[in-house]
Amino acid sequence: GSAQRHRQHALPGGELRGPRLAQVRASLMGPTATTQFVDIAELPAGDAAAEEGYTHVLLDRRERARLTRLRGELLSLLADEMRNPLTSMVTALEMTLGQNLPEGADRVLVGARRSGQRLLDLVTTLLEINQLEHNPNALRRAPASLRPILDAGIAQTAPLQHQGAVQVVVEYSGDSVVNVDSERVRRAFVHLLEHALRQSPPYSTVQVHLDCQPDTALVRVSDQGPGLTPQQRELLFEQRITPDERKAPALGLAFCKLVVETHGGRVMVESNGSNGSTYIVTLPIERRAEG
After folding, report:
1. Considering the chain, what is the average pLDDT of its residues?
2. Residue 131 domain-assigned?
3. Which of 25, 71, 125, 158 sees the fewest Cβ atoms within 10 Å?
4. Domain assignment present for 67
């Protein structure tokens, strides 16, 4: 956002503290602004600007917040308008596949159904991201065992495993009960696992490891792909309109990060840029009452 600096001598008494700071903050923000997007921060004593007579910096993120809100509203509108026609199209294709068709037509319809389903999943993900960003309480939490959620996600990626000739190796060190929205966590894990599978060369393995610590469930997904550069790691979980140079889906990992963090967990990636990557998900464990 934009930044404006305030000189110390501009205020009576030369002090920008306590009630005076609150007064200046209120006057700069105006009656309709919120402290979430506008704030005043004190500059460190050794800062170059402080040596020039500046004492504070005004951080104004209102325009960025407005553009983010408008983007979310636009994407939500487009996705909502597209979902019903896409659902109808996929359903019609599924019904057609059960009919007597000319030779070779099944293959074409299967491809069309797969493409339609991918587009429908993308639209659904857009709507989910917008919903969770504006209302984290939309999560339907309930205590659940984590292993069945991971098993369901691994089973869902079976076609991609076969297509890429990649084997998923599972190692569970116990199990954990987590208070989660099981459906959304499963989908978040599927996006993460699909990304690892797409980075993997043929006849390699992707390892899924669950480690249960006293307060945290830790899931590691490791591939044997080419690895990620520091810049790729930094942007990996950002929302993007288009796929990256490796043809990875643009929104799946952003959805994964949002779901995990909304549950109070974290998503991280480790990679040396040349020999595979490890994606780490942490989730708080549900603590059962004693007695």
Report:
1. 78
2. yes
3. 158
4. no
Q: Strands 38-42, 142-145: parallel, antiparallel or unpaired by DSSP?
A: unpaired
Helix or strand holding residue 146 (H, E): helix 146-156
How many degrees, rounded to 5, is the angle at CA 259 between CA 177 and CA 150? 45
For residues 6 and 93, membership in a common domain is answered with: no
Nearest 5°: CA angle at 86, between 84 and 90?
120
Q: List, in order, residues 6 or more apart from 19 with CB less than 8 Å away.
A: none
Distance of alpha carbon 188 from alpha carbon 251, whole angstroms: 11
Domain coverage including residue 35: 2-60
Flag whether pLDDT at 82 surpasses 70: yes
| Sign of CA pseudo-dihedral 151, 157, 158, 162 | negative
Given a contact cutoff of 8 angstroms between Cβ atoms, the answer to whether 130 and 255 are in contact is no
Residue 289: inside a domain, yes or no?
Answer: no
* 3 state SS of 130: helix
Cα(143)–Cα(179) distance, rounded to whole angstroms? 4
Type of residue at 176: S
Length of the chain: 291
Same-domain status, 83 and 184: no
**Which pLDDT belongs to residue 38?**
67
Q: How many CB atoms lie within 10 A of CB 85?
A: 12
**Number of domains the chain contains:** 3
- Pair 269, 150 in one domain: yes
pTM score, whole prediction:
0.66
* 278 and 158 in a common domain: yes
Q: Which residues contact 188 (CB under 8 A, 6 or more apart)?
A: 255, 256, 259, 260, 281
Rg of the chain over all Cα atoms, to the nearest angstrom: 25
pLDDT in tens, 129-142: 888 888 888 899 99
